[in-house]
Each structure stands twice: as structure tokens, then as C-alpha cells.
Amino acid sequence: MNMKKVLKDTCILAALMILSVFVISIIWSGVTEEIGLVLKLFGLAFIISLANFLFDEYVNLSIIMSYVVKYFAICAVVMLYGFIAGWFYPSNFWMTFIYVGVVLILAYSIDSFRVKRDIEFINRQIAGRSKS
Amino acid sequence: MEGQPLTVIIEYSEYNDSVAGLVRRIGSMDVAFSVSVDGRQTRIDLADVYYIENVDRKMFVYTGSDVYRLDATMAQTEEMSADTDLVRISRTCIINTGHLREIRQVKNSHLEAVLDNGEMLIVSRKYLQDIKKVFQRG
Q1: CB–CB of A126 and B101 under 8 A?
Q2: pTM score, whole prediction
Q3: What is the value of ipTM here, to two decimals?
């Protein structure tokens, strides 16, 4: 069983369920505070995903450097977005660095593990091809 | 016989990934690129291509020892090379995995593709999955 695919499909399905339920709720009772928060989070996720895609397409840094740059860029985006959306009190904006840091450390660990595994797979296939 | 198209008969007990890979390889033997060098047109078989690079919006085909100009865009080249051993490894480069000797990570830094003529090309992590897929096809 491909657990990765199951988890990915779960996330996509959950996002679709949330959006469907919210669309009906918006039609029924307008944009409530909770719905507004989730929509803002979707907006933030879209901006970060787009920036991440463009960064990976045009910038070629080492794996560590790319995550360091991404860390500061995402912190800046989240802080700006958070202040516009009214998420932060002026005293607790520094929490952004912790939240973003935790997410990026996890992403870095998964990414570096995956890269290592993919390289090993490719090199094994090349070695097998050379033997046959 | 001269003038006759290449005919290959493949016999198998079960159509699996290995057979599919073999059929794809044989099919891609007919793929060739129309290129130019010093103003004269010529054709290069896919098997002779090491990599194709986009330099200042101009496409160049590199063989083991020569460089040719290819009159196509990156998107057109990718389209032509679908289901072959060619795969994109960065925003500007497509390699022939048939000439790939190794992929290596330089001390937790960038990735490099080493070709069998010793040339090294930068690989973008974003395209690593695509390279893997070529080898998964068999």
C-alpha cells in the first residue's frame, strides 16, 4: 500500500470537504469569523506555494541555503499577511519565526531524506544497467 | 536490406515493465533531431545526444564531442522527447539518461549529473523526481 499517496489524497479530500462545507455556509449565513480565518489561511498557503514554485524554478542554491532563504522569505510573507489580516498583536509577531521554523525543519528533514533516497535509487538503476 | 525499415520482433511470455521499457527504447531509436552546424543542416540520432541546453534562449545539442544548434524551443524539445530517455534536469537543461553515469550530491549542497564522457551538469532538486520516473519506467 502506498501510504504517501493515501496521505496526499486525504489532505486533498479534506481541503475539498472544507471548501465545499464553507461555500454552502457562506451562501447560507455569509462569511463568519471562522470561515474568514480558514479562507485567509488558504490565501496564505497559495501565496507561499506560488513563491516556493518560482523560487525552485529560478534559484539553484544548496539544500541548506535554499531552506534558510525560504525561512526568512516565508517569515516576511506570513508577518505581512498576518498584520494585514489582523492575526498578530504587536507584541507576539515573533511567534511567526517559531511557527515557520518548525514547519520548515520538518520540510527540510523530509526533503533531504527524499533526495538521498531518490539519488540512491537512480544510481542503483544505472549500476544495474551497466551490469546487464 | 537497404531501404527497408528497421523491423524488430520481440517475443515475451508476459508483457511487463521490462518489455515495455524495451519497446520504448527501440521506438526511440527512430527519434532524431534536425540540427545545424556552421550553417549546414544535419540530423543527430537521439542515442548520440548527451544533453540539450538552453543558452540565452538558444538551444544547443551536445554530443560526446560536438555542439549543434537546435531550432526549437525548450517546450518543443520536451514534447519531441516524450517517452524517450531524455529528461529535464533543470530550467535550462535536458539530459539523455542513456549517457548518465551517476547523480551525486556535493556535500549537502547542489546536485550534479555525471555523464559517461565525464561532463558534469547541475541538477535542480525540483526535477529529481522526473529523472527517477525515467528509471522507474524500466
Answers
A1: yes
A2: 0.73
A3: 0.79
Answer yes or no: do A75 and A48 share one domain. Answer: yes
Count how many domains chain B has: 1
CB contacts under 8 A, A 63-82 vs B, are 63-64
Does A67 lie in the same domain as A104?
yes
Tell me the nearest-neighbour CA distance from B124 into chain A, angstroms.
7
* Interface mutation target, options A54, A58, A113, A125, chain B, most CBs of B under 10 Å: A125
**Contact present, A59 and A68 (Cβ < 8 Å):** no
The tens place of each residue's pLDDT in chain B, 138 residues long, gives 566 777 788 888 888 777 877 787 777 777 788 888 888 888 888 889 999 999 988 999 999 888 999 988 888 888 888 878 899 999 899 999 989 999 998 876 788 999 998 999 999 888 999 999 988 876
Q: Is B125–A126 a contact, with Cβ atoms under 8 angstroms apart?
A: no
Q: Is A116 on the interface with B (CB under 8 A)?
A: yes
- CATH number of the structural domain spanning residue B30: 2.40.50.1020
Rounded distance between C-alpha atoms, residue A79 and residue A112, angstroms: 27
Regarding whether A92 and A113 lie in a shared domain, the answer is yes
Domain count, chain A: 2
Do the Cβ atoms of B102 and A126 come within 8 Å? Answer: yes
CA A94 → CA A90, A98, A99, A103, B36, distances in Å? 9, 7, 9, 15, 58
- Specify if B6 maps to a domain: no
On whether the CB atoms of residues B125 and B111 are closer than 8 A, the answer is yes
| Contact at CB, B124 and A60, closer than 8 angstroms | yes
B109 found inside a domain: yes
